[in-house]
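Review form for a predicted model. The reviewer records the input and the model, then writes brief findings.
Reviewer: anonymous (R2)
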Amino acid sequence: MYSFFLILFSGVFLYFADAKTLKIKGLIKEYKIAKFLGLVYIIGSFGYLVYSGLRR
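Model under review:
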């Protein structure tokens, strides 16, 4: 369960906090990458949750 929350909070941080900082600095390419990676981490965390639930 710890891994799920770690991956989820990493994704949420990338999607909201890091992307907002990059957008303010005017780094649009990096902003889009941070938003994309944030979504991938969030979706991946739920994938990990399903995987670990089915493994038991």
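Findings: The mean pLDDT is 87.
Further findings: The first helix runs from residue 2 to 25.
Recommendation: see findings above.
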